[in-house]
Amino acid sequence: MKKRVLSLVLGVLMSITFISCGSTSSSPSDSKSESSSSESTASGDTIPIGVISPSSGALSDYGIAVNNAIALAIDEINASGGVLGKQIKATYLDDKHDSAEAVNCYNKLKGDKVVAVIGSVASADTSAIASVAAKDGKLILTPTSTNDAITGLGNSIFRACYTDSHQGEIMATFASKNLKAKTAGILYNTTDEYSTGLKDSFESAGKNSGLEITTTEGYGNGDVDFNTQLTKIASLNPDVLFVPDYYGTDTLIASQARAAGYTGPILGADGWDGVIEATDSGSMEALNNCFFSNHYSSDDTSEKVQNFIKAYKDKYDGKTPNALAALAYDSTYMVKEALEKAGATDDASIVKAMTGMTYEGVTGNIALDENRNPKKGAAIIEIKDGKYTWNSTVE
Ligand code: PHE
Q1: What is the pLDDT of residues 11-37, one digit of tens each?
Q2: Which of the four, 86, 100, 254, 347, has the lowest number of CB atoms within 10 Å?
Q3: Is the pTM of this model over 0.70?
Q4: What angle is formed at CA 121 by the lines to CA 300 and CA 308, rounded to 5 degrees?
């Protein structure tokens, strides 16, 4: 009897795992009818690509933006004739910002014989996927994962964004040059690759620019109470406080830091994108005097950026695309270009075509170096009275 119950439970669990990574329910609204197909890459009149993103869970704002932007780019590409005479067809899978789930998603897409995967979003999840995909030689293009180690996992792993050593350095330099800071505190997630990578790069870049790190405090995944660490930080009162995490945690830390009496600038990196949307109006003041590095600014007046913003807004109820959407949009066009250049859909040809690519996108010029990372500038965004405002651009 026990056995039967157990196998029933296991069966249900297995089917949940399968459904969550086999379902397309969290894909962009107009792509809902798409299902994962088992067409082979070489036959049929569509070219299947896979998308992995956290369209539910703690980073769902990111996953949805990425899916929306990819769907927009694919619509544009297909409307203008597709690629290699075929239409691109995407399968969107939800990794829920869970690394084991991300690997399930990858394996599912591999079974569906997608020619390339765009994803995932958070560094920890992309890292897990890349470790597996590198052995397959399957092209993985992460639009947004900045952790340095990811592209080193294999020759088929690329990114459209800059790395954490770059943004950590940008923020340390910004602290010492622009804000004239001499001392810094760091509060970071000791259990997350993105957060630890940024802490390391900020720390080492700080050393080079004469910024003394006077206190480093940590916490773990899922923590919501940072009072002990922030009380200590407030009493030491460093000139700036660096908080490298994602929006849901950043908003908690900012308001608890202000409550603990820390009034100095709080600095972050791209994971701060979305923090305003995650903060209710009563706590918005806590975000004043916060600065973070990002991949693009919607204030950019260039025609390319403004055309993208208009197309995105037209398709998605007037919503302004965030940096993740911009990077995902560029990534889709990079995959298109690789397919065109390859003239084929096998893994080796597509990977070869992506290697060393230069693409002029809405997030700037993306020139992939020999380590499959682009060299790119960054925008520094300041939060003022509930608005993201462009502060400066670092080339
Ligand atoms: N860079 C983040 C990561 O690696 C993801 C991210 C990209 C967040 C862009 C916001 C904007 O996990």
Answers
A1: 333 333 334 675 444 346 443 333 333
A2: 100
A3: yes
A4: 30
